[in-house]
Amino acid sequence: KTLRRPSEQLGRVAVRVSVPRASVPRVDREERSGLSGKRGADLCRAKKEKTSGFFACLRFVPSRRRESSSFAAAAAAADRRLSRANGAQRYNAMRLQAGDAEEGGGGNATYAALERERTFTSAPDPIRSVLQHSKSHPRMLESNATSHVWPLGALAELLDNAQDTECGASRVDVDAYEVSPGRMALSVQDNGTGMNRSMLQNMLSFGFSSKEHVVGNVGRFGIGFKSGSMRLANDALILTRREGSASVALLSTTFLRAIDADDILIPMFTWTVEAKGGGGGRGHTYVAETPANTAEWEENMGVLEEFTFLKTERAVLDELDKIASPTGTRIILFNLKDPPEFDFEHDPADVRMRGKDTGDDDDDDKPRTSSRRPVFQQHRAGQQMTLDVPEDYSLRAYMEVLYLRPRVEFTLRGEPIAPRCAIARLQVEYYQFEPYTPKGIPEERTAPVVVHCGYQEEKSKHCGFHIYNKNRLIRIYQRFGAQLQANTMMKDMLGVVEADCLEPTHNKQAFNTTDVAYAKCQKHLEKCMNDYYFGVQNLRLAGMSGRRIAHPGKSKKKG
Predict the structure, then answer these.
(1) What is the C-alpha end-to-end distance of the chain, expressed in Å?
(2) Maximum Cα–Cα distance for the chain, whole Å?
(3) Lowest mean pLDDT among 79-83, 206-210, 451-455, 501-505
(4) In which element (H, E) is residue 140 found?
(5) What is residue 46's predicted lDDT score, i.e. its pLDDT?
(6) Which are the contacts of 245, defined by CB distance < 8 A and separation ≥ 6?
(7) Hey, which of 69, 166, 310, 546 has its CA 20 to 30 A from 160?
């Protein structure tokens, strides 16, 4: 608001203070009389300044007769009112600067100091301190996890983070072991660059992601770890080691329910890692760094000792040392969901989903091992209920096709994963169509769609397309066109689609079917299917059936 003087004013000086418009003080009659005498009573007025944000402008115009005293009185009165408003600290700093200059003997130095206009790019700290913080209730972890219906898809979220380019890993180990009698846990460990404390905190928060539209990364929303880990287990322990530091954090719904928390609280520790000379024992030492307060450290460590299988700080450091590489991250999922969803005993080199017999037997725990009754089957349009798809219930089979071109080496329960390239199996009458780029999609998603079609050498009832987005499998054996109809056309046709322009859903198990790019890709794919099917029919009529085509990088086969 503006205070104005008569025409014989010396000049105007401006002070820009970062306070809400409603907090700017009004000038009463006594202050007006102190500012300019009787003549100012009917001339001084307050005027609203039309500005955005929290900025307001306050102008003082002293008289010739009372340059110092009248201005000081008015400024002191305004200062008392501004001290009750948010942002007064910045104004007081300028007032102190002006006061120091005036004490030095220069009366006009007051005006010179106040004349420097201060502008701020955002709301100052006093403003932020009174704004309300949006909390996330622990139920958010559980509701967010419901996006994953299929447990193996939830576990794939952790594998995605480990093989992303930011991680810098060359090896990812997945294991299952017993942390206490009768209690199994899953672990995912990589030899990447690890995380510092701030990066770890961002990973445990919602929405922090730098992967959107990054080449080779399918992550985008910053919720994959939370949704995937909380879908499989009640508690997740994260241990990470970076150059010079190591951190441990616990994301535990068991702990949050026990204390009846209304916000997501995470015990977190950070150590400084120092090299240690001499042989024997560890080649490094851990020096406690954060929390710096001993009481806070003990309180956080008490949470880990009560709600995890690690009962001492020494046990936590021993778990950190299981990261054999100098840097890396180890994630342990324990207190797995009940009733149990995984079978760890059927195959010691695999993790399989449990299945229930749907027959009339009274034994509900009878596993479905018959080929006529798959252990577990995802619903797919047009697929027979008796068709056995190992990728639906076997983690090893799923990891073999999870990435079209794996960038890291995977192991499961100590045994390496042998990737099965979905394109390489199309050995009979293989054909790759020209890349197709849909029009009318955002520039950051512009990428060609590549369609591969063919047949596999051995007879199989499987048909449909594996659809990959940024090297990651999204849909498996999805049928289109005539494959959904009640006839025998294209029922043995297999294919692979590389569709980086499509938008996956949050759980990375489907695509946004309302997107215009999806409709265009589906139309293009069905056209490719028809061209391929009838083209192969013509080749067969010409006596060229069963032709096998060598893939790039493979020796050409005769036959």
Answers:
(1) 90
(2) 113
(3) 79-83
(4) helix 139-145
(5) 40
(6) 196, 197, 270, 271, 272, 273, 289
(7) 310
Residue type, 157: E
The top-scoring range by mean pLDDT among 21-30, 95-104, 348-357 is 348-357
User: Which residues neighbour 36 within 8 Å (Cβ) at sequence distance 6 or greater?
Assistant: 5, 6, 43, 44, 63, 66, 70
Residues facing residue 495 across a β-bridge: 453, 465
The alpha carbon dihedral of 148, 154, 158, 163 has a sign of negative
Annotate 342-357 with DSSP letters as a single string: EESSS-TT--EE----
Across the range 402-428, mean pLDDT stands at 94
> Where is 498: in which H helix or E strand?
strand 494-499
- pLDDT of residue 173 exceeding 80, the answer is yes
Rg (CA), the chain: 34
- Cα distances (angstroms) measured from residue 251 to each of 234, 383, 425, 489, 552: 9, 39, 41, 51, 46
Residue 160 has pLDDT above 70, yes or no: yes
Q: What is the pLDDT of residue 142?
A: 87
pLDDT at position 97 is 53
Residue 319 has pLDDT above 90, yes or no: yes
What distances in angstroms separate CA 139 from CA 23, 146, 148, 204, one per listed residue? Answer: 39, 11, 16, 15
Q: What is the mean pLDDT of residues 539-544?
A: 74
In angstroms, the CA 491 to CA 23 distance is 74
CA distance 399 to 159: 9
The beta strand positions in 194-347, using DSSP E, are 233-242, 245-252, 268-275, 284-290, 328-336, 342-343
Give yes or no for a contact between 505 and 515, defined as CB atoms under 8 angstroms apart: no
pLDDT reading at 548 higher than 90: no
Q: What is the pLDDT of residue 74?
A: 60
Check: CB of residue 453 under 8 Å from CB of residue 428.
no
3-state helix, strand, coil in the chain (%, to 5): 30, 20, 50
Q: What is the pLDDT of residues 202-251, one digit of tens each?
A: 888 887 766 555 555 666 677 889 999 999 999 999 999 998 899 999 99
Q: β-strands 409-412, 171-180: how paired?
A: parallel
CA atoms within 13 A on the CB side of 131: 10
Q: How far apart are CA 449 and CA 436, in angstroms?
A: 5
